[in-house]
Amino acid sequence: YGAGLEDKPEVVVLNKTDAMTPQALTSRKKALERACGGPVMLASGATGEGVPEVLRRLMDVIRKAR
Are 17 and 25 contacting, i.e. CB atoms less than 8 angstroms apart? Predict the structure, then answer.
């Protein structure tokens, strides 16, 4: 992509957690953490679980960038 995209802050979220078994969720989260090299948040758009935490994290990132 270029154009400085790699320098922008990043929040990685694994969505659709309501559709995963606990074992699949753990496995996919670990794999995504290895792939992105950082923490991964969990959320479910369908149930709303984890969404407030993701929104708070996004607001923190935005505030720091201003």
Answer: yes
Q: How many CB atoms lie within 10 A of CB 54?
A: 16
| Cα radius of gyration rounded to whole Å, the chain | 13
Segment (H or E) for 42: strand 41-42
Cα angle: 36, vertex 65, 59; to 5 degrees: 75
How do residues 50-66 score in pLDDT, each as one tens digit? 999 999 999 999 999 88
How many whole angstroms from its chain centre is CA 62?
15
CA atoms within 13 Å, Cβ hemisphere of 28: 16
Instruction: Report residue 64 as tokens.
Output: 């720091």
